[in-house]
C-alpha cells in the first residue's frame, strides 16, 4: 500500500491537477483509491508564457529554458499547498507528473524528427518533497514506434473494464481522446485514439472574445447558433478521416487557427463559440461512427475531463449519439476532473515496479515498454 501523488497540466492550460491516491499492486492487480484532489489554476502570466513557448512564431530557447524551471517550481508549490490544505502527514512513495506539453510531433514534416517535448523539470519536486519523481512518460513510447499518446488508456483498462458492457471512455480535455473497452476485454482488444479538439478551440475563442478561460456550462454557446460554412470547413480537416492509432494537439487545433476564425467572424462571438462546441461534439460522434461502431455495439459512453461540466456540449454529444447512454464519471462514482492526474499516478506506479504501461493498440508502438524517467530522492544517500 502506498500513498502517491499524480499530477497533470494539460493542453487546456487551466492549471495543475493534483491527486493523492492510495495504490497497491501493479498490472491487473492494481488497486487505486482517490483520497484527495484539487486543481491549482495557472496565473495569466504563466498561461501566456506557455502559449508563447508553444508557438514557433513566439517561442525561443531562453523562454523554454526558463519556463522549464519555473513550472517545476510551480508544481512543487502546488504540492506543498495541497499537502497543507488536506493535512497529509503520511510520507509519499513517489510523485508522478506528466509535465506541460510544449510541442508534439507524431507525424513530422519538413525534415523534422518524430518527437515530443514536455517541460516542468522534476528536480524541484524531488528536492522539496524528498521523494522519487516519475516524469516524461511519452518519449519511450515514441522511441518504440508509437505516437507517445494517448497514454491514459492503460489506466482505463485497469479501472473501467466491465464483464457485461462495451464501454467507451471519452476524455474531453484540451484535446478529446477515446478508449474503447469491449466487454471482458484483454489488453490486446483495447483500442484508443485522439478524436480531435476537446475544449481547446472553445477556450481559445472564449479568451479572444470575452477574456475568460472557458465557457461555463456552455452558457455562451447556448446563446449562439451554428455558422454553417465555418462548421463545414472545420469538418473537412483531414485529421478526422485519418485512421487510428492517431494523436493530435495544439499544432492542428490551437490558438493560431482559432484566432483567425475569431478575426473573420468577429461580429458573431456567440455563434463562433456555438460552432466550435458543435465541432467537438460532432468530431467525437463522427469518430465513433467511423472507427468504433463498425467493430462493436456501444453500450455506454462515460465522459471525463473538464468538458464533462459543459452541459451544452454534453447535450450536443447526446444529440449526436442517439440511442447510446452518455454518462459522466461521477455517475459511476468517480471524478471527471481528477481522471488524468489519477492516471499518471497509476502510470508512475507501473514505472516504479519496472512494468510497461503503453498500449500498443492505442499509441501504435511496436512493443510494450516501461515509460517515464525516474528522478531519485536527492536526500536518500549514504
Please supply descriptive tags for the structure shown above.
382 residues, alpha/beta, Nucleotidyltransferase, domain 5, 6-stranded mixed β-sheet, 5-stranded mixed β-sheet, 14 helices, 38% helix
The value of Rg in angstroms is: 20 Å
Q: Please, how many domains?
A: 2
Q: Based on the structure, what is the oligomeric state of the protein chains?
A: single chain
Write out the CATH superfamily name of the largest domain.
ATPase, nucleotide binding domain
Spell the H/E element sequence.
EEEHHEEEHEHHEEEHHHHHHEHEHHE
The CATH architecture term of the largest domain is 2-Layer Sandwich
Strand content: 15-25%
Percent of residues in helical segments?
25-40%
* Shape annotation: globular
Distance, first to last CA: 26 Å
Low-confidence stretches: none
User: Can you tell me the CATH class of the largest domain?
Assistant: Alpha Beta
Biggest sheet descriptor: 6 strands, mixed
CATH fold category name of the largest domain = Nucleotidyltransferase, domain 5
Q: Describe it for me?
A:
This is Anhydro-N-acetylmuramic acid kinase. 38% of the residues lie in helices and 20% in strands. It has 2 domains: 2-151 and 337-375, Nucleotidyltransferase, domain 5 (2-Layer Sandwich); 156-332, 2-Layer Sandwich (Nucleotidyltransferase, domain 5). β2 and β3 (31-40) form a beta hairpin. It is built from 14 helices and 13 strands. The strands form 3 sheets. It has a 6-stranded mixed sheet with strand order 3-2-1-4-7-13, sandwiched between helices. The model has no long low-confidence stretch (mean pLDDT 95).
